[in-house]
Amino acid sequence: MTMNETNVKGDRIVDAPEIESMHLDDRVDGPAAAVMLSAGIGIFVLGLLTLLAEANVSIHDFLGELEFDKGVGPLAGKTILASAGFFVSWLVLGLAMRHKEVDLRRWFWIAFALGVIGAVLMFPPVFQAFASE
Amino acid sequence: MFDLSNREFWTVVHGLVLGTVFLLLLGGGLAGLWSLQPGYLTTAGVRERMRRMYVGMWAMAVTAWATVITGTWIVYPWYRAELSVVGDDDFAGCAGAILPGDTCSPRDFLKSNASGDTASWHNFGMEWKEHIAWAAPFLITAVAFIVAYYGPRIVRRPWLRTATIVMLVGGFAAAVIGGLYGAFLNKIAPIS
Hints:
The complex is a heterodimer.
Chain A: E1 5-8, E2 11-14, H1 17-20, H2 30-55, H3 57-64, H4 74-96, H5 104-121, H6 124-127
Antiparallel strand pairs in A: 1-2
Chain B: H1 6-34, H2 43-80, H3 106-112, H4 119-132, H5 135-150, H6 158-188
Helix pairs in contact in B: 1-2, 1-6, 2-5, 3-4, 4-6, 5-6
């Protein structure tokens, strides 16, 4: 199949006759960039808090106070704050970027890097290496 | 007949019911995303597939959230309860235990090495699982939003489709780590 290609902010747009009859309007990439970045932020915050809770007793105890007497321990604070990081950043970035055409690839790779760093920080041999005595 | 304790019920809901539903939805979602390529489907096929993908992706995101929330807030406190401390001995209640019980929570049981070399199951397995599993709802929610936002336009965006699949597979990997270690841990140190 021969495909005509155009580019929007670095992304390749190919012909797809099967959807042309749907008469779809164009969509800017800002909202997608926002949610990608927010997912990366959520994972990064969780990884960072996992390491900090291991390294610092005060942070460990603070995160444990967010368990509402359910016996969850510091995991409660880590996951509440990471989820807040995800949803709040999605709201803020989503509003800020809702009409913007952005370089989606660039935002994706930033989000990807945040996600990978977060995942590495919550890998036990990594965060346990920072354990306070 | 078919008795389940409250703890067993929630362990089954968290790991087996929600986990199975998640994996089924993921298989469908991945196949659906993969097929959104020029020349693969008719116009009617794209319309029909997108309806299923909108429902399936959001259902997958809800399932991912439900899995980590029930795991963290309902099942995990039973796993980590401190039951075995007597004086200076953190694991006195686990002495001679072959399974967790009233004086020995699953975490204490694993860390005590009362029944073999089990501490690594907690120090590595549970410590990894309890954190990394939370990456799944973030990633799957993002995927659900992208699919809903672009809809059939994804057919014209091969890179976007690939990036979305990468996020979906990342969420799947996080869920698999959580699910596999959960299954092993509940076999070695069951919550009952």
